[in-house]
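Before we proceed, please read the two lines closing this message. Tell me what the token row says about the fold.
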Amino acid sequence: MNGVVDNDDRALIEIEVSRTHRGPTSRVTAWIDTAFDGHLVFSSTLIRELQLESLVETEAILADGTRVTLETYVCYMEWFGRWQAMQVISNDGRFPLLGTGLLSGRQLLIDYQSKVLSLS
């Protein structure tokens, strides 16, 4: 998979997600967040647009140390040739996030000079 580094030095990658296994898909540009150890974070607006199914609430500690309770959802995502169920946390940030829970066992190379990234 390939992505880009934007003008604000965010490592961005396009992912394909669906409400159901093998259902209609949507493309989402996600910011790779190496400080987040989960799978995905989407805004409540994007979750509504995708019509994702609610799972449970979960406790989380934000980057500033604040402890919060967040809603979780499920989506299906094409990840290296396989459709997999993924946990999505609802949090109203500016960008969807892709966390290190999806990077385990993968190689992420980010070239800030040429503004490209590769994930294999």
Q: What stands out?
A: The first strand starts at residue 2 and ends at 5.
